Every structure is written in structure tokens, then in C-alpha cells.
Description:
Elements: H1 3-16, H2 24-37, E1 41-47, E2 53-59, E3 68-73, H3 80-90, E4 97-102, E5 113-114, E6 117-123
Parallel strand pairs: 3-4, 4-6
Antiparallel strand pairs: 1-2, 2-3, 5-6
Amino acid sequence: MHAELLGQRVAELIEGAAFPHLDPSSVMTVIALVLAGAGLVTVRDYVLDGADRIPLLVAEPFPRVEASIGVVPALGGFDDTLAGRLARYAQHPAVDGLIVVNAVAGPVPLPRAVGGVPLRAAVAGAHAGSDA
């Protein structure tokens, strides 16, 4: 699946999940469980280069692996520190797309891409339990 399609699917699954707690560890645990339950492969704290670890890397199961998406919590909002981390993540060949997960409904001012890698936002529990 192409990176943008996989990113869209992952974002929809995240937004449809129910989150009992909105702290980064709990959010990432729920996301990993929801994505694995949807048949996707997830790796927590995937080691990139040096000391960098992406909190969650998601891909389709073998042999369909065409893209992998990094999922990064940003429950406190988007700032320069997060922007720098995303830029480093985008440089790694294992990262074909990035999703920033926040807890605030409404538009999040993000660029459409970082270093040529598609970037999208997902709101934790945005549609959980709704008919939308």
C-alpha cells in the first residue's frame, strides 16, 4: 500500500479508537493494539540512527510491505522540538510517512510533508463512538 494510503488508514484507525487516558505512553499503547488488531505490523521504539527512536513504526504485513509510517505523539502540541525530531525521522529510509497524534480537535497547523515525507495529523479518539 502506498505511503499516503497507509497513512490515511492509520489515521482513521487512530481517530476511531477509544483512549482511556491521554498520556503519551497510554496513547501509544492503545494505538499499537488497535493497529495490530487491524492486521498491521507495529514496532514500538523503532531504532533509527544513533540515539533516535521513533515511538511507533507501522507497516502492512509481509509480503505486502510497500511503505511504513511513523506515529509520533504530540499531545502537548506542535513545537520546534517536535519539528526537529520529525525532520530527523523523515531522513531515515524506513520512514515513508509520518503521523502526529494530538489530543485537540480542530485543525493542527502542520506542513503537508517533512523532508519529502508525507505528514498528517490524527486526533486521539476524534471519532470514537460516533456515527461519523
